[in-house]
Specification:
The chain has a single domain, classed as Neuraminidase. Helix content is 6%, strand content 32%. The protein contains five helices and 35 strands. It has a five-stranded antiparallel β-sheet with strand order 2-3-35-32-31, with no helix packed on it. The longest helix is centred in the N-terminal third of the chain and has 17 residues. The N and C termini lie far apart (47 Å).
Length: 655
């Protein structure tokens, strides 16, 4: 059960902010067992109780009145003038920054956690989505482009309310929502676009409404490339929970969507949505539902994370009882994708390795990525296959002294500003030119670039050092030194996912995507993957190889692409960002350090690549205290930074 706390910690912001729910489908119910408080340690209860702090705001900081602005209008090429581009980096969300109270920094402002997709019939048409807080709380932001990503227009999904009858036990005509997203977007073979959207109410912890209902809905855009959307949305899974449970569970999280847009496929235009169900008994299984009628309805849930001998550690020693004997009971971050032959693949993190709960100093702490496959349109799944082992990012509070119960990407050296929660996850795809070829990328803190030896001056090399006994967070020797650096690993299959090049392999021996010399001892994370039209592997990710990023916590975006033929995993890289992005400050702690920067980034690729990321190069602005007439000020934070905003940017990369 303590491992459950670690999963909640890894997924933090969305999990902690949502509250609880019971998960139903339009046609059936997934029944959760009664919550047993003896199975929930104090650390988990403490995590769930943080919802009020995160939702209501942070410690107020007085704006710096010496930095007033006379104008703040759209346009321009630099911050803080509400720029529409920064060099050849193009701003996707078209709004200008709302002027939020200092103790609510991020609310009413931020955009993060990005997704993007290209129309398979017209590569000039793109849709993008992100967590968008401009209306106060987080909801879905949507944009569309008709010129290959050169310019963008905002769109709006009508998700303020849905039909009350979608929820078993609800007798009202409408169900209204306080927040939502974790967006994912895709196109079908006919050129219509789709959005999968998580919607939720926060409950009595942060509002006067005790409702804790939640859901996943899909919306459809027909004929205009994302400029308008269907209303109301179609439910994938729903929960009616009119009162706030003490446990905050069960909880549905991290939905992702894929569409079979091959016109020749047996399952043409079938829509697949996957998610994790965090249940009251401590389990966390992956489920999938599908639609064969253009998202007018969805099937009952199908279990993806089937039982396997790959899962020797079922957490029964911590009070978790596997459902139906299924020992693969702790999973997260599912990524579905479809092959040209109609096969549905779902990659996901699994935490049932023996090493995942090692707490002794000096012991191994690796976890694994699994892949489950369906060949009958998502009706059933075979036993999972191991893609590879990986090492998750280090426990933040141990090495940064902040953001308890979460992993993060610590900068090297003495500074401790980079504390936003982060986790390694899988992102994969099926080769459009070869049905046999599948690639999965995923991060690992221990890898072929790790320096695990002790140097002559007595400094400690980078090596696993067990896990925190409270939440099983990964610990390492050598954190915050050049010996440790996160990397993007790549594992491939040439037999339609039956086995992978990294199956059973030590992560220290697995091929990596970032292969430039400057990347050897710097961090790369939050990747997304795709194949181009010729079957070349392409990945974009956050990167700290540039300038002083690795020591001051700034970030950049890099695109890596396969070279030298598909028989070898060789990659060249290009810098995407035109300048480094400062360490994020939205959703800050008392020091001004951001605790939430989203959980992933986006990439769409076909003949060109379009990475999509949260960008912090625009400064945050605030009402100057006691100014008459009103004026706008910058904000100096206790950590020495000037507060910044989070916008969504993209670029068009020819490679």
């Amino acid at each position: 059960m303590r491992r459950r706390s670690r999963l909640l910690a890894l997924l933090g912001g969305v999990l902690v902010l949502i509250g609880g729910m019971a998960v139903l489908t339009p046609s059936s119910v997934i029944r959760a067992k009664a919550f047993d408080p003896n199975k929930a340690p104090k650390v988990q209860q403490r995590l769930l109780s943080q919802a009020a702090d995160n939702a209501l705001g942070f410690r107020a900081v007085t704006p710096n009145t010496s930095s007033g602005l006379s104008t703040y209008i759209p346009g321009g090429k630099s911050a803080p003038s509400c720029p529409t581009s920064l060099g050849d980096n193009v701003k996707v969300n078209q709004n200008c920054l709302n002027i939020t109270a200092p103790n609510l920094q991020g609310r009413g402002q931020a955009q993060n956690e990005t997704a993007i997709a290209i129309n398979p019939l017209n590569s000039n048409q793109l849709i993008a989505a992100e967590n968008n807080y401009v209306r106060g709380d987080g909801l879905c932001g949507l944009q569309y482009s008709r010129d290959g990503g050169k310019t963008w227009q905002d769109s709006a999904v009508p998700n303020e309310f849905v039909r009350g009858r979608d929820f078993s036990g609800n007798t009202t005509a409408r169900m209204y929502w306080q927040g939502g997203c974790d967006p994912t977007v895709a196109w079908d073979s006919r050129g219509d676009a789709y959005l999968a959207d998580g919607l939720f109410n926060r409950g009595s912890g942060v509002s006067d409404n005790p409702d804790n209902s939640s859901s996943v809905y899909v919306y459809r855009s027909v004929g205009n490339g994302g400029a308008s959307w269907s209303f109301p949305g179609t439910p994938v899974v729903t929960s009616f929970l009119p009162t706030t449970p003490d446990s905050g569970l069960p909880l549905i999280d991290k939905q992702y969507m894929a569409i079979d847009n091959n016109p020749e496929s047996t399952f043409r235009d079938r829509i697949y949505v996957t998610w994790t169900l965090f249940d009251t008994d401590g389990t966390a299984y992956i489920y999938e539902a599908s639609s064969g009628d253009f998202a007018r309805s969805f099937s009952s849930p199908v279990l993806v994370s089937e039982n396997s001998s790959l899962c020797p550690n079922d957490y029964s020693q911590f009070g978790v009882v596997p459902k139906n004997g299924n020992k693969c009971d702790e999973n997260q971050f599912s990524d579905p994708f479809v092959g040209r032959d109609g096969a549905l693949y779902v990659a996901y993190n699994n935490f049932n390795t023996t090493a995942a709960t090692n707490t002794a100093a000096g012991t191994d702490n690796r976890t694994q990525v699994l892949l489950s496959k369906s060949t009958d349109g998502g009706l059933t799944f075979g036993a999972p296959v191991q893609v590879g082992f990986y090492y998750d990012l280090p426990d933040c509070s141990t090495y940064q002294g902040q953001d308890e119960f979460r992993a993060c990407v610590p900068e090297q050296g003495s500074q401790q500003h980079s504390i936003f929660r982060a986790s390694n996850y899988p992102s994969g795809g099926a080769d459009p030119t070869n049905n046999d070829h599948v690639i999965i990328t995923y991060g690992s803190y221990i890898n072929q670039d790790s320096n695990e030896t002790t140097s002559g001056n007595g400094s400690t090399g980078c090596a696993p050092n067990g896990t925190d006994p409270d939440v099983f967070a990964q610990l390492y020797n050598g954190v915050k030194t050049p010996a440790c650096a996160n990397k993007i690993l790549v594992s491939e299959s040439w037999n339609r996912g039956e086995s992978f090049s990294a199956t059973g392999a030590d992560p220290r021996t697995v091929a990596i995507v970032p292969q430039q010399a400057a990347q050897a001892h710097t961090d790369q994370w939050f990747q997304w993957f795709g194949f181009d039209k010729d079957g070349r592997a392409v990945t974009s990710y956050y990167d700290r190889q540039y300038g002083t990023d690795i020591t001051d916590g700034s970030n950049d975006i890099t695109l890596s692409f396969q070279v030298g033929g598909r028989s070898a995993l060789n990659f060249n890289s290009v810098r995407v960002t035109t300048s480094s992005m400062p360490n994020p400050t939205q959703f800050p702690n008392a020091q001004g350090n951001s605790v939430f920067f989203g959980d992933y980034s986006g990439l769409a690729v076909w003949d060109t690549a379009h990475p999509l990321w949260a960008d912090t190069r625009s400064t945050d602005l605030f009402d100057c205290p006691n100014s008459s007439p009103p004026a706008l000020c910058l904000l100096s934070l206790p950590n020495g930074q000037i507060a910044n905003d989070e916008d969504v940017f993209t670029a068009t990369i020819n490679f």
